[in-house]
Each structure stands twice: as C-alpha cells, then as structure tokens.
Design brief:
This protein is an alpha/beta fold and about 450 residues long. The protein folds into two domains: about 170 residues, Aspartate Aminotransferase, domain 1; about 240 residues, 3-Layer(aba) Sandwich (Aspartate Aminotransferase, domain 2). The protein is built from 15 helices and 14 strands. The strands form three sheets. It has a seven-stranded mixed β-sheet, sandwiched between helices. The radius of gyration is 21 Å and the shape is globular. The structure holds ligand KE4. Ligand KE4 binds next to helix 4 and helix 5.
C-alpha cells in the first residue's frame, strides 16, 4: 500500500499551476474527476508507469490509447533513433508518409486517400470541412457524450474531459457554430431520422465513434451503425467514423472491419502515431480530391507527416497481428470478469462494458448503453475506487467517463494483480474514504 504524503508530484503540481492552466496540458490529466493530486510521471516501460516519487503502477491509461504495444518498446525506440539521426522534420515530402498511408489503406480499404495531421482533433475538424464542401450543407450530427476533440463544432454535449469536468458545452464556442451541431442519441437510429426530417437537405455529415470510448466504453447496439449507413445513403449525407480510439484497436481495420461497413470518411489518431503526435483523415477518393492542393478545401500543418511520427506509426502498425488481438481480447475479458466478480462479492453495483481491449467499469446498477444511462453512474464511488487502486499500485483512468486500455505488454500476472487490488478497493468504493469524502 502506498501511503500518500507531500510528494514530489504535489510539489510539481503546485509549481505547474503557476505556468500551465490547471497545471496540465490536457484537462483530464488533472484528476478533477477523482479529486486529489495528479501523478507526475518520470518513466514507463511495458505495462508499467513510474511516478516522480519512484512509485510504479500497472497502467490502464496507456497515454489514452496509442500504446497498443506497451510503453517504449525496444523496436520503436530503435526505429525513432535511426530516423532522428537523419533529421526530425523537413517541411517537405518524404517516402515515410507514403509508406504509412499505403499501410493504412491496406488495413482500412475505405481509406482510398489519406491526409496526415498532428492530432485527432485536426483530423475530425478537417473531415467535417470536407463534408461541408462536398455537400454544400452546413449542419452536422454528433451523438451526446461522444468526443471528437476540441474543435468548436464538437464542444456541444461532448464526452471525455468535457463530460468529466461538467462542461460538455464549452464557453467560447460561438452560438452560430453550436447551432449547426445537431445532437442525436448514441444507439438510437430513430433520433437521427428525426433530425434528418426536421433538417432535410441541410445536414452535411453524421460523425460517430463507432464504438463509443468517451462516454466510457459503450459498444454499438445491433443495427445501429448499419442504420446510420442507410440514412447517410438515403439523405446524401457524408458518414464519418471517428476511429481515433477504435482504429487498429478493436481490429487491424478498426470497427469497419468488424462491422463490414465502409465509412465515407474516417478519422484516425492514437495508435497510428505509436505515441507520437499523429492524426489522419481519409476515405473516398472523390471526397479527398477536394483537399488542397488537389482541390479547394484548405488544410495544412507545419509538422504534418514528419518523419519521426511517421516512423513511429509504421512500426506500430507493422506490429499488428491476429495473435495480438487474440491476446488483447482474452486479457480484456479476464479483467472485465474479474472486476465484475470483485464488485459482486463486495455488494457494489457495477456494470462493466468491454469491447476487445478497452473497457469501463461503471459504478451503477443500470446497464450502460448510452449517454443518459452512463451519467447515472456514481462518480464518487469511482473516485474512491480509483484512489484505492492507486494506493495498491494500479493506475486506472482518472475519470468514470473514459476507457481503460490494455496493451500487448500487459500479462496475465498484471490482470491477476489488478483483480486482487480491485477486490480490496471495491470495499472502499462502497463507502466514504476515511475521514473525508472525495472532493471532485
Ligand atoms: P486528440 O486531439 O486528443 O489527439 O484526439 C481527439 C479525439 C478524437 N476522437 C476521439 C474518439 C477521441 O477519443 C479523441 C481524444 N481522446 C481523449 C481521451 N478520451 C484524449 C485524452 C485527452 O483529452 O487528454
């Protein structure tokens, strides 16, 4: 058990708040969703992460998804070192971009052309620009609780950190922009049909996380994605799959491989960069032909396609194999079952949603299949559970509304240790932590 005292993380966090808003460079890292002081990380290797106080944890954040091969694998470090020796960025075309682009198309055939950018946000904001240009329409449909990065159009009833912090509709987003973002309900095709009826001929795109990761993990209900495909075809709407989490995560070809559906445009991130800043958007050649300089839709980036990030992505995607997914699927199922058993034996209401190697334990007695059911979860119970796990050497996501990520570096003994810690932590989740309840 780690007893928390004034730690180096605490001292660094106090200093960080004098220079970084909230002391972090991305809100979800600040532990606002669980209370307490964020851990400052010194190093990581495989499935483990070590904080500046020398404490090591089994990591289930895994940089929020990119690290399907674990932290700092030897092959990736070698690939980066050799590419860096030749230069880090040229602002000019390189063969590496072609290699990664051709690899993406081989894994995801719907991505006939691809443009690399530097984040998932850049990918999604560019994809809706292409959809608006292609259709001459301005409205987009997103789903309550889904998160597509922080571009203005998406900060309307958004998930992930926006949901965690209770600002799903961010200040600073112009009313006119927000007005063009229509809200549907995840796993409810009817809700999309109604929007098409009331906004006939005005919707450019439907953008969806084909398996939601930012409500926490919520798999698509049977027929949901097919229903969106049919509506998009009927209404002449561009269907965008935001596969920033699911791409290369749930299968080599993402949810499009699993569902057998083709998106018109696909947004990618995380695994495609192997832990370096890479995003990508791509899809039908006729749509992507609109992107400058091939077409008039402007989008650009100083570091887009830079050799370091491209080499990390190539290494990361080359390492994908059927064996890898079988291992991840098996571990995900074991961990989900172990958490559910621990909660049952402790008399704690828990719903564990799992999809391959991503999962979320919702502290709720109600099954979670949408945003409305997810927000019924007891975030204070999650916070108590989180801190109890941290004290036992396990580092889950610091928010009830995020996905836990496994990697090929996670072993059975990591899962066994996590379940053992969970069996004790569930008892603490059930009631207030000694002395004071969680201040989130
Ligand atoms: P980035 O701009 O953070 O690279 O990607 C935005 C994004 C787009 N689409 C989906 C489905 C995403 O999950 C994300 C980002 N995911 C969050 C975690 N849920 C990133 C973590 C953070 O915000 O710090």
């Amino acid at each position: 058990m780690f007893r928390r005292r004034t730690t180096k993380s605490a001292r660094l966090f106090a200093r960080a708040q004098q220079i970084l808003p909230g002391g972090v460079d991305s809100p979800v890292r600040a532990f606002k969703g669980v209370g307490g002081t964020p851990l400052f990380i010194k190093s990581a290797r495989g499935s483990h992460i070590t904080d500046v106080d020398g404490r090591t944890y089994i990591d289930y954040v895994m940089s929020w998804g990119p690290l399907i091969h674990g932290h700092a694998p030897r092959g990736l470090r070698r690939a980066l070192a050799s590419v860096a020796a030749a230069g880090t960025s040229f602002g000019a075309p390189t063969e590496l971009e072609l290699q990664l682009g051709e690899l993406v198309r081989r894994l995801m055939p719907s991505v006939e052309r691809v443009r690399f950018v530097n984040s998932g946000t850049e990918a999604t904001m560019s994809a809706i620009r292409v959809a608006r240009a292609a259709t001459g329409r301005e409205r987009i449909v997103k789903f309550q609780g889904c998160y597509h990065g922080h571009a203005d159009s998406f900060l309307v009833q958004a998930g992930s950190g926006a949901l965690t912090l209770g600002v799903p509709d961010s200040p600073g987003v112009a009313a006119a922009v927000a007005a063009d973002t229509l809200m549907a309900t995840f796993n409810d095709v009817e809700s999309v049909d109604r929007l098409c009826h009331t906004n006939s001929g005005r919707i450019a795109a439907i953008i969806v996380e084909p398996v939601a990761g930012n409500i926490g993990v919520v798999p698509p209900a049977a027929g949901f994605l097919k229903g969106l495909r049919d509506i998009a075809d009927r209404e002449g709407i561009v269907l965008i799959f935001d596969e920033v989490i699911s791409g290369f995560r749930v299968a080599p070809g993402g949810m499009q491989e699993i569902s057998g559906l083709r998106a018109d445009l696909t947004c990618l991130g995380k695994i495609i960069g192997g832990g370096l800043p890479v995003g990508a958007y791509g899809g039908r050649a006729d749509l992507m032909a609109l992107v400058a300089p091939a077409g008039p839709v402007y989008q650009a980036g100083t570091l887009s396609g830079n050799p370091l990030a491209m080499s990390a992505g190539i290494w990361s995607l080359h390492g994908l194999s059927g064996k890898l997914y079988r291992h991840l699927e098996r571990l995900g199922a074991r961990l989900a079952a172990g958490l559910a058993d621990a909660a049952r034996d402790a008399g704690v209401p828990l719903q564990v949603n799992v999809f391959g190697s991503i999962l979320t334990p919702f502290f709720s007695s109600q099954p979670v299949h949408s945003y409305d059911s997810a927000i019924l979860a007891d975030t204070r119970a999650y916070a108590r559970f989180f801190h109890a796990m941290l004290a036992r050497g396990v580092y889950p996501p610091p928010s009830q509304f995020e996905a836990w990520f496994l990697s090929t570096a996670h072993r059975d003994e990591d899962v066994d240790a996590t379940i053992k810690a969970a069996r004790a932590a569930m008892k603490e989740a059930a009631g207030p932590v000694d002395g004071s309840d969680v201040k989130t």
